[in-house]
């Protein structure tokens, strides 16, 4: 018999299962460090070796996960009367195991090698605005991922199988309903904004550039410190696409800087801070087990979007932070809080970049990608036709046509990772951010005043208490219900954007 942190005795099979799972997850965590290094530090010349290293580790992880002995332990534990936490561990490991045993190790290794090789190709294709250079890699990855999905469940829509890798407990059909609800709410709202006669400030910062990049870095470091980022457990670097990675002991983030716009780096950094805060809030004692892992990408993205939008784009935050920005950039001295708030929330008419989108048009960027990915995976769309379909949809949904593929279908890193099915989790996360923030506003006394005063601990603690500390203890909807008292839904998001953008643009519907 073995014991764990709860002090109760667990069956021996459970202790052996946990030991195995930790080994599997440590191999995965080592891969993540190598991926971080590839995107942040490694010279491009390192790719051939790194691709093999990552492929070997993916293969090793897959072999450990599909060992007969692991299956036997899961079977042995099936009949046991386990407490809630242990039952959750067994549920999560069983799910991973059952998906993995269906996929040949060679396919896992080939996907890994191909994604490592694709990354520098995507970076160069984007720089050179050359979709045709990247297209063969997308084609190969679509094909490999389709095979992967067919191994896991030949009777299911392959896109739904891929989506479940990122969000295991919200079915794709539910994601589609949410996206449809967003489309129905946002399309008329954006049209009304385009017609709005209410003047808002849009260029408070843009008209005062350039902004020295070293100063920008100092500014975002200051913002991270203010928000409570523990530097002894993290670091900030730059990369072509901002991201965060790590675990409860070491949660790193990256950002990127645009010389004409300090808001881009600031909001991206706050976004990644939200991800890192989730990671750091996972229980230390459960590192390496499902209880010490994030719940899924919808919940992960809810944490980043909550900090980015509900904090970083709020008026109380700008009341607090504008003087700090002016310290670094005296050219913004004349900017008012109102002007800053309006500028960071502008619904731009000509933006083609997802990560720079406002909270409304953002979801149309996602819907576009969702539709293109589904058509790619089902075989209804040829990779060669992606640029034209992309640009047509941009024009239809957002009224703007990208001037280049670099600003169109080459802008995101995700396809170089083979991450088809990932994008919908961004919209789900934004929706959940609104639901969680509404719940935090009910629970945390004077949350708005606390933000204005630079007191971010109460919000972070609320999120840790209600979301982070559970790891994978609950399935997604159950976790949402525990935290908010309601099922996962888009209601709070619709209320939030209706109120916020109704005020900003003087809309009748608000
Ligand atoms: Mg994110």
Offer a concise description of the structure:
With 510 residues, the chain is mainly alpha-helical. The protein has 20 helices and five strands. The protein is globular.
User: What's the alpha carbon Rg, rounded to whole Å?
Assistant: 23 Å
Strand order in space, largest sheet: 3-5-4
Outline the biggest β-sheet. 3 strands, mixed
Number of helices: 20
What is the general shape?
Answer: globular
Which H/E pattern describes the elements?
EEHHHHHHHHHEEEHHHHHHHHHHH
Question: Which molecules other than protein and nucleic acid are bound?
Answer: magnesium ion
Helix content: 55-70%
Q: Tally of extended strands?
A: 5
Structural category is mainly alpha
Mean pLDDT: 95
Terminal Cα span: 61 Å
The low-confidence parts are none
Q: How much β-strand is present in the residues?
A: under 5%
Sequence-ordered SSE layout with sheet pairings:
Elements: E1 2-3, E2 9-10, H1 12-40, H2 47-65, H3 68-78, H4 84-100, H5 105-127, H6 131-152, H7 158-166, H8 172-195, H9 213-227, E3 236-238, E4 244-247, E5 250-255, H10 262-281, H11 297-311, H12 315-328, H13 337-344, H14 362-378, H15 386-398, H16 424-443, H17 447-452, H18 457-466, H19 476-484, H20 491-505
Parallel strand pairs: 3-5
Antiparallel strand pairs: 1-2, 4-5
The protein binds magnesium ion.
Provide key terms for this protein:
single chain, 510 residues, mainly alpha, three-stranded mixed β-sheet, two-stranded antiparallel sheet, 20 helices, globular, binds magnesium ion
What would you say this structure looks like, in words?
- By secondary structure, this protein is mainly alpha-helical.
- Helices cover 62% and strands 3% of the residues.
- The chain contains 20 helices and five strands.
- The chain has helices spanning 12-40, 47-65, 68-78, 84-100, 105-127, 131-152, 158-166, 172-195, 213-227, 262-281, 297-311, 315-328, 337-344, 362-378, 386-398, 424-443, 447-452, 457-466, 476-484, 491-505, and strands spanning 2-3, 9-10, 236-238, 244-247, 250-255.
- The strands form two sheets. The chain has a three-stranded mixed sheet, with helices on both faces.
- It is globular and about 65 Å long.
- It starts with a strand and ends in a 5-residue tail after the last helix.
- The mean pLDDT is 95.
- Magnesium ion (MG) binds at residues 271, 275, 301, 304.
